[in-house]
DNA sequence: ATAGAGTTGCTCGC
DNA sequence: GCGAGCAACTCTAT
């Protein structure tokens, strides 16, 4: 019996180097249905901003065109229904013998795919699943490494045992047509109310999403790729998706042999834009519009040639191939840790820190609102932390370097890796002391290249909760960008209010004399906000907090954390240490500290930060904070 | 056991 | 521009 195959596209929107697609074609099928299922989980429950939606639709359209170029009868068949319900119906309607797809090790995907495999089994449909998203099969890496890979060395060693990643498979020269596309007796199952009521992307829509309203086949009845209009979204990014664009970028990179062979990630400038200092292939890697193995081998061929001519090439982890190893490391870390990889709670690899604004993953819902307020320590009121978080998200912190990055992230969906470091460090251990999961959620929504494994892993890295632990190394929002952009071109581009600001004060505009502010047409506190806190003061407080949490040594799967006691235990256990530490360090810098007028509204008085903390006295609670706010309204007017 | 390395810190002094 | 010092964590190789 000739095979009749559904090729299910998910993380692999390309035709070159697709091991799963090759496996489907190797069946020599009489019919091949290239299918995309419109998963309501992704439409409503995953955070996906307009820019990433556009990129996905670009990639789908490109695959569809690519298929049609190989065989005019072929194209991407988009079915507007959950795979869990539509695929079993298709098995019958199209008399399917095989279901083929690329392996996905994300936790939601694993669960979904297990269900699909079971349903296919019931229907007598044979399934073929091939890894193709990473250099090596992440599950095999985990097996060889005896657990999740937490260093690139572990990844590379395990990879060595598996042998070099396979060379890329060429784009197929022929593809069978799909068979009969009629859907007799197949009715559309629309998403239930539980999806609409929990729409994570509502704020990005101008009206209710309508992608399901026109039935299984879409408005033209032709299974076409949905549009941004149907999603009720509009994108702002200049970066566009699709296999052709991705291959052109890679080709341009490897044609520049010196750039390719001597690439050193830490030396690339996060302040560079138009063009950026790195390749911008990460969104394509996310959607599969470029194969990471093609990237790997195209680069390695250039490197080998470069070295053959006696010239020195860079090596992992800094080189381009090293970047791919990090990606595989995070994938294998997630594959090994499992469902809880993206959170602290229940995650044995992630260190517990009593962050402000704990994420939604807490043992008791009340814990999310819980705040500690010991004066002179890293603790602040949760209301204040909430304000910091909102300002960070919206790019209104008053630190131009941080704000410019957040503006670029929101509008363009891509920022340089080191820019991600800067804002992630600032939000967590290097400023706000806010839960990394809160920041990761913002990245999840706005990044074109959002990959749960890499995003969560990098947030763990930057917050010093896993992968990396040197919490003394904190990025300065002033000194760091000056290394590559003394003039502040980047800041001037993304924060136009500051475009004529004096170079001397571009990263700390609150220090600029008022006459110069007027001359630059930007009054700090009016046209651009004052800094939301004294960064050096916050940095020191964060280090004290990290030190205490590291001494406690809790991790996400420890019983105290799972039971929800860790925060209280830690507070009790380290209250004395923290305060004595504060005693010893709070005075030296006091004389250099600027007056309170230089900063945005501060619920705690400036006096309190200069004075050594006295045990058990003068705690700032919600009530006293609001009392102060009421009593001193002028403090609230700093940014007017 | 101990030393050294680890993708990318900052400040200061030369 | 470079190196030392800051004060410090974790894993790996020996």
Rounded to an integer, what's the Rg over CA atoms? 26 Å
Distance between the termini: 76 Å
Tell me roughly what share of residues is in helical segments. 40-55%
Given the C-alpha coordinates, what overall shape results? Answer: globular
Report strand order across the widest sheet. Answer: 3-2-1-4-5
Percentage of residues in DSSP E strands? under 5%
Can you describe what's shown?
- With 640 residues, the chain is mostly helical.
- It has 28 helices and 5 strands.
- The chain has a 5-stranded parallel sheet with strand order 3-2-1-4-5, sandwiched between helices.
- Helix 4 runs parallel beside helix 5 (107-122) and helix 23 (535-552) packs across helix 25 (566-585).
- The longest helix has 21 residues, at 50-70.
- The structure holds a DNA duplex (14 and 14 nucleotides).
For the structure shown, list the relevant keywords.
mainly alpha, 28 helices, globular, disordered C terminus, DNA-binding, Rossmann-like_a/b/a_fold
SSE order and pairing:
Elements: E1 4-8, H1 19-26, E2 31-37, H2 40-45, H3 50-70, E3 77-79, H4 83-93, E4 98-102, H5 107-122, E5 126-130, H6 138-145, H7 152-162, H8 193-196, H9 228-231, H10 243-255, H11 257-262, H12 282-287, H13 292-308, H14 320-337, H15 382-394, H16 400-412, H17 417-427, H18 436-446, H19 452-462, H20 479-482, H21 489-494, H22 514-520, H23 535-552, H24 559-562, H25 566-585, H26 606-610, H27 622-631, H28 633-636
Parallel strand pairs: 1-2, 1-4, 2-3, 4-5
This protein binds a DNA duplex (14 and 14 nucleotides) through residues 150-154, 264-268, 270, 316-319, 322-323, 326, 417-418, 421, 425, 464, 468-476, 479-480, 543, 547, 550.
């Amino acid at each position: 019996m000739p095979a009749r195959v559904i090729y299910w596209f998910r993380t692999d929107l390309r035709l070159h180097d697709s091991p799963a697609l090759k496996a489907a074609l190797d069946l020599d099928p009489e019919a091949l249905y290239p299918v995309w299922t419109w998963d309501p989980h992704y439409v409503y429950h995953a955070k996906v901003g307009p820019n990433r939606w556009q990129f996905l639709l670009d990639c789908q359209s490109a695959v569809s065109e690519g298929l049609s170029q190989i065989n005019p009868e072929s194209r991407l068949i988009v079915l507007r229904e959950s795979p869990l319900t539509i695929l079993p119906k298709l098995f019958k309607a199209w008399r399917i013998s095989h279901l083929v797809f690329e392996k996905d090790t994300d936790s939601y995907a694993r669960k979904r795919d297990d269900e699909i495999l079971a349903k296919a089994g019931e229907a007598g449909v044979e399934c073929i699943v091939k890894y193709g998203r990473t250099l090596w099969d992440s599950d095999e890496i985990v097996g060889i490494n005896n657990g999740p890979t937490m260093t690139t060395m572990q990844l590379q060693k395990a990879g060595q045992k598996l042998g070099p990643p396979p060379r890329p498979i060429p784009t197929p020269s022929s593809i069978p047509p799909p068979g009969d596309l009629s859907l007799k007796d197949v009715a559309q199952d629309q998403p239930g109310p539980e999806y609409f009521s929990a729409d994570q992307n509502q704020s990005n829509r101008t009206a209710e999403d309508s992608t399901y309203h026109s039935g299984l086949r879409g408005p033209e009845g032709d299974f076409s790729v949905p549009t941004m209009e149907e999603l009720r979204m509009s994108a702002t990014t200049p970066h566009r998706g699709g296999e052709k664009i991705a291959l052109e970028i890679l080709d341009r990179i490897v044609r520049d042999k010196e750039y390719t062979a001597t690439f050193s990630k830490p030396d690339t400038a996060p302040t560079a834009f138009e063009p950026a200092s790195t390749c911008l292939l990460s969104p394509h890697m996310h959607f599969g519009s470029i194969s990471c193995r093609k990237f790997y081998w195209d680069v390695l061929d250039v490197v080998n040639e470069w070295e053959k001519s006696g010239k020195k090439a860079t090596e992992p982890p800094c080189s381009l191939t090293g970047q791919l190893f990090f990606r595989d490391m995070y994938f294998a870390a997630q594959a090994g840790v499992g469902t809880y990889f993206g959170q602290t709670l229940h995650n044995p690899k992630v260190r517990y820190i009593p962050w402000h604004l704990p994420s939604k993953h807490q043992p008791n819902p009340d814990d999310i609102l819980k705040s500690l307020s010991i004066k002179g320590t890293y603790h602040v009121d949760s209301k204040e932390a909430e304000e910091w978080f909102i300002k960070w998200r919206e790019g209104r912190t008053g630190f131009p370097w941080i704000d410019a990055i957040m503006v670029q992230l929101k509008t363009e969906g891509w920022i340089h890796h080191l820019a991600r470091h800067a804002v992630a460090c600032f939000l967590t251990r290097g400023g706000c002391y806010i839960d990394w999961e809160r920041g990761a959620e913002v990245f999840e929504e706005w990044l074109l290249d959002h990959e749960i494994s890499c995003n969560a892993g990098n947030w763990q890295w930057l917050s010093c909760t896993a992968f990396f632990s040197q919490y003394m190394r904190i990025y300065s929002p002033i000194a760091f960008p000056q290394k590559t952009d003394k003039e502040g071109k980047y800041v001037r581009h993304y924060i136009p209010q500051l475009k004529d600001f004096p170079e001397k004060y571009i990263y700390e505009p609150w220090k600029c004399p008022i006459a110069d502010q007027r001359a630059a047409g930007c009054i700090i506190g009016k046209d651009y906000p004052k800094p939301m806190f004294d960064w050096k003061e916050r940095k020191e407080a964060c280090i004290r907090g990290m030190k205490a949490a590291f001494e406690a040594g809790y991790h996400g799967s420890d019983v105290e954390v799972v039971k929800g006691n860790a925060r209280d235990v830690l507070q009790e256990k380290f209250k004395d240490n923290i305060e004595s530490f504060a005693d010893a360090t709070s005075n030296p810098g006091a004389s250099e500290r600027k007056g309170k007028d230089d900063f945005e509204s501060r619920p705690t008085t400036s006096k309190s930060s200069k004075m050594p903390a006295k045990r058990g006295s003068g705690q700032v609670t919600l009530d006293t904070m609001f009392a102060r706010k009421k009593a001193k309204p002028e403090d609230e007017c700093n940014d007017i």
